[in-house]
Amino acid sequence: MTKQKLGTEFQMKKSKDPFEIAFVEQDESPSESPTGPDENEAQTPDPSTSATASNPVRTAGPTGKSKEEDEEEEEDNMDVELGKLPSSSDPDKTAIMQTILSQFTEKQMSRYESFRRSGFQKSNMKRLLTSITGSAKISMPMTIVVSGIAKMFVGELVETARIVMAERKESGPIRPCHMREAYRRLKLEGKIPKRSMPRLFR
Amino acid sequence: MFQKDLQHMMYGFGDDQNPLPETVALVEDIVVEYVTDLVYKAQDTASKRGKLLTEDFLFLIRKDVPKLNRCTELLSMNEELKQARKAFEVDEEKLATID
């Protein structure tokens, strides 16, 4: 059983497009997919879950952005990405998620794919953290945690900016004025850490 | 520094497929300032102990439940992957000895 889990994981490491591999897997054995999760549920990547989600992605194809380059860059992150199921140990939530994903339009799927796969480069984040702390000892878990926090923060910013735009009845790409208003609102909510001491150097 | 990543991230969270470069630059500034302030605050709590640990960040976001849950999820996934890679190396050694 360990070998099997490692086999699928190693396969994903080699491939450029894990969604593609997952799609191929599902193609070969669609009827076996329910048994797959039962064996591997407590462990890492679940190909069948991501396989059902990957079908629309295959047909959609890259949407203007150079996703292939990103996939190569994010190859290190891919194992972790696919392992992060929408609901790790709750079969009901997984089933609900699957039904939702199967009904996504192309646009929705591409946006969801961007949502799942995007992230800060570990190397960049590590460099930033080292420069802030001044010390060289930034552990990997710390980088992962800060990247996760930062990503969710970006999510809050963008969502608040969209709410601001809806209030102003504007559409199109988010403009800096919306973003500044969103930042101001998050500050009022207390989501932004503020320093009590004035910053001497900027 | 984070331009490319941020573009995909903002699209994933609801912005246009091609966010405005001014907006991306602004978000990058905001995020860098956010991370900086976060690290400073973590260092404040860590100074009593001496070393900066991951737990300091988790303590900082303890009030923000979604972020806390996400971070614990990320950390446990990282652990699982570490164990899996370790076991994989052990298997490789076994194969090497067989040959």
From TrEMBL, chain A:
Domain of life: Eukaryota
SUPFAM superfamilies assigned to the protein according to its UniProt record, in alphabetical order: Histone-fold
Annotated region described as Disordered, given as residue ranges: 1-93
Ranges of biased composition (kind: Acidic residues): 69-79
Entry GO terms, CC: transcription factor TFIID complex
Domain TAFII28-like protein stretches: 100-185
GO MF: protein heterodimerization activity; RNA polymerase II general transcription initiation factor activity
Entry keyword Lipoprotein: no
Keyword Plastid: no
GO BP annotations, alphabetical order: RNA polymerase II preinitiation complex assembly
Family: Belongs to the TAF11 family.
Protein name: TAFII28-like protein domain-containing protein
TrEMBL record, chain B:
GO molecular function, one term: protein heterodimerization activity
Family listed: Belongs to the TAF13 family.
Protein name, UniProt field: Transcription initiation factor TFIID subunit 13
Organism of provenance: Fraxinus pennsylvanica
Main location group: nucleus
Pfam families per record: TFIID-18kDa (PF02269)
UniProt keywords, alphabetically: Nucleus, Transcription, Transcription regulation
One GO cellular component, as annotated: nucleus
UniProt key word Transcription: yes
The UniProt record lists the keyword Transcription: yes
GO biological process assignments: transcription by RNA polymerase II
Cellular compartments annotated: Nucleus
PANTHER family hit by this protein: TRANSCRIPTION INITIATION FACTOR TFIID SUBUNIT 13, TRANSCRIPTION INITIATION FACTOR TFIID/SUPT3-RELATED
Superkingdom to which the source organism belongs: Eukaryota
